[in-house]
């Protein structure tokens, strides 16, 4: 699961890693240029906006992070609101047990009919193994540095899967109470995790075999990110969580779908197939989570619309929002690895602010938010906010695009060196 949207943090302290590097929480207004040919995703590139800001960021994503004193770059976030599920919500989630058993678990694929990473990669026991690796490397060598940065960021995000499973098991009424509970929520969480586990696995092995990246730096980043965790402010609340995961799964479907298309464009058919299969999994997961939230809207429309509103006001943070390789800031004048990665994802067209707005639009339509009827009050205010939110995000995108254009004209270019790709440089403008 993943999304690249970061918050434009108004007045909140910046994240501070224990290595002393300060990561600005404001989005850079810089776009990236590849050293190689540009891909044909015109509408995304013309948007020209960073995927790292949202217009309604009243609540900071990470209020503060204190050094842990251990010398590692693990980031800690102070405590926050917890256990916010309302009384009716408890009844609704409990009432969904049968539905989850009958309908939710259907979205999982049996292991015997699932693809495995090994189906897509060179076979180590084959006498042709080295030839197969050479073939893979020929495709990978076509990939430009900016694409590789985004692919590594996507892989690192997938590899930080323990944080996502951990999050699902903080949920009131829907967690796995034992580690092997037979409740449908617990089985969903474990088997969803098992499906997701293949994503990081296959991308990791592909990148290792490609020879195009610095695996030590990447592995170092994964260890740090899992150690730092993930904080989308879900408050142990399954309503908030299922809105978040609905958004995230659609965002990852879009992102992996675009890396697949770009891989094909650059001539890497192996990687195109890998990313395409991952995107198809994310589409199935999106369908599952949006179906859960649909049930919430049917059984508790007021609770559901307020949860959707709450997550949109907070902004959907990407699961890698605490990413750090321990060196990026010191090698790039204090720049944040996360923000630079998000900028490159935006400029390559893999995931943009326009995508964020499209997802908001889609979910508003999918859950028929405009058709709900409330007798005034907070629910109606939330409904009105939600129906206008995509336009609000698009206006921000346009402002960012204009700012980038101005910066470009003034020659305000920056180049970042990414340890993930052996310190090679990628332009950010
Ligand atoms: Fe995934
Ligand atoms: Fe997924």
Automatic annotation (TrEMBL):
UniProt keyword list = Fatty acid biosynthesis, Fatty acid metabolism, Iron, Lipid biosynthesis, Lipid metabolism, Metal-binding, Oxidoreductase, Transit peptide
InterPro entries, sorted:
Fatty_acid_desaturase-2 (IPR005067), Ferritin-like_SF (IPR009078), RNR-like (IPR012348)
Q: Keyword Iron, does the record have it?
A: yes
Q: Which cofactors is this protein said to need?
A: Fe(2+)
**UniProt subunit comment:** Homodimer.
* Record keyword Lipid biosynthesis present: yes
The chain's coiled-coil residues are none
UniProt cross-references to CDD domains, sorted A to Z: Acyl_ACP_Desat (cd01050)
- Taxonomy-wise, where does this protein's organism fall, top ranks first? Eukaryota, Viridiplantae, Chlorophyta, core chlorophytes, Chlorophyceae
Which family does this protein fall into? Belongs to the fatty acid desaturase type 2 family.
Q: State the name under which the record lists this protein.
A: Acyl-desaturase 5, chloroplastic
